[in-house]
Amino acid sequence: MTRPPAPPRLDFSFPSPRPRSRLRALQAFGLSLAALTLGGFAVMSSPGSAAASGLSADGLPRFTLLLAGRDIVYCYYRTPCRDQDQRTGLLQTPNTDTLMVVKVDGTRVSVLNIPRDTNVGPYDPRQTKASQKVNSRYWSQGPEGLADAVETITGEHVDAYVIVRTDYVERVIDALGGLDVTVPEGGIEWVDRAAGVNLKLNPGPHHLAGKEAVLFLRVRKGFGDDYGRIDHQKQALTQLAGRLKSAQGLAALPTILGGVGNGVETNLDPNLLTTLAPQLGKLRLSFATLPTTTIPGTFNLAADRDALARLWGPPGGASAGGARPPAEVPDENPTRVKVKIVDASGANLGQALARALAVLGYAHVRVEAVPASAEASQVLTGEDAGAATALADVLGLPRLQGERFPVEAGEVGILLGMDARQSLAALAPAAAAPSTRTETP
User: Fold this and answer.
1) What's the rounded Cα separation, in Å, for the pair 151 and 376?
2) What's 334-431's CATH class?
3) Hey, is 46 helix, strand or coil?
4) Which end of the chain has less Cβ packing within 10 Å, N or C?
């Protein structure tokens, strides 16, 4: 863990959160990296029971996965159970507080985060509130029951599930070289002796090893609430998934492959995953959060299926080879789009990108230069996902939609990290040209 003398000013703070219940100290983070790290290299050596080829008539992969993260279970104070699959004698039962639906449609990989408090089906006042939350279904009904619950919530058919433990995620992050993060103003301090947690991070950039990285991604402080935590988990996944295309990612494969039976639970057909291999260099990632409304008198959330259809398209679009969802349809009039570029490239690429966007018709672009950051370059959006998708496609960057990203209504954010020196190298000559403008008229 390191801290440079001058912390960056990425200003990625989050607005005031909705009132939420307190997190349990041992909530599962479970980054669900198994499928996003080339999905499935983690399980390609294991026989599965999900029998689907995943190939459409055009030879491209199309399938939908449920990804869930669960914590390590403890039998005694600070003592993990020898058998991590046992269901009796536990100090605390595990929930799946990180849930994602991954829809692979050719070269597009769309990831939908499901908030842990989402109610499964209509709310029933005769049942306990906790028993109706989706994060409790893994313990009460097993992985198949959890998959059924996610199908009820989203309307998407789930072809297979991948469930990972946090200790597996730690190993994968270490194998991929750690995680670069920016801690918000005020810093982070999470001390829980009972759980063996002692995380203290000052504001600014840090390079975290696997154990600290998982703790950082479990904490809410500094990120608002559960939605803020989901949003910065998306940023971490974007960074880690990008590394899989490198030599370092290939070197990590033995660790990823070693997860089956040692932190990874799945029914995934390995043949399904091999369909991704020829497309790895072309995959385009996009992240979104399930739209929800609070159920009165509870902390439970009701899925907003109409809003989900606008954001993610109708259920079954990927596996059926349907049309691109509304959120993936590029905006035809860039003159209406406001763009905020946060330039952490360390190479003045923000100004060069602003000039390039002006040529493409983007009339409202502002640039903020901040200290160089190792965080991954990405396109950020709130509800204006269509406009963000257009920019992400042009730039070849992942698109992240969320509830707590610091973008205004009608605005798209672009974070340029140091990786943009390679991914957007074509901008380098323009970056050398002098310019003092920070916003196009």
Assistant:
1) 31
2) alpha beta
3) coil
4) C
The number of beta carbons lying within 10 Å of the beta carbon of residue 432 is 10
> Could you identify the residue written with the tokens 């907003």?
304
- Calculate the alpha carbon distances from 121 to 131, 152, 317, 397 in Å: 12, 6, 21, 35
C-alpha 206: how far from chain center? 19
* CB 197, CB 214: distance < 8 Å: no
Helix (H) or strand (E) holding 230: helix 226-243
Please give the backbone phi and psi of residue 41, each rounded to the nearest 5 degrees, phi first: -55, -25
Q: Which residues of 350-385 are buried (b: 16+ CB within 10 A; e: fewer)?
A: bbbbbbbbbeeebebbbbebbebbbbbbbbbbbbbb
Task: Give the global pTM.
Answer: 0.78
CA-nearest of 333, 340, 381 to 364 is: 340
What is the C-alpha separation between 298 and 124, in angstroms, rounded? 11
Q: What is the pLDDT of residues 270-291, one digit of tens each?
A: 665 555 556 566 778 899 999 9
CA-closest candidate to residue 238, choices 407, 30, 380? 380
Side chain identity at residue 166, one-letter code = T
How far is 109 from 103, CA to CA, in rounded Å? 6
Domain ranges of the chain: 33-323, 334-431
Q: Are 7 and 204 in contact (CB under 8 A)?
A: yes
Q: 33-323: which CATH topology?
A: Aminopeptidase (3.40.630)
pLDDT of residue 147: 96
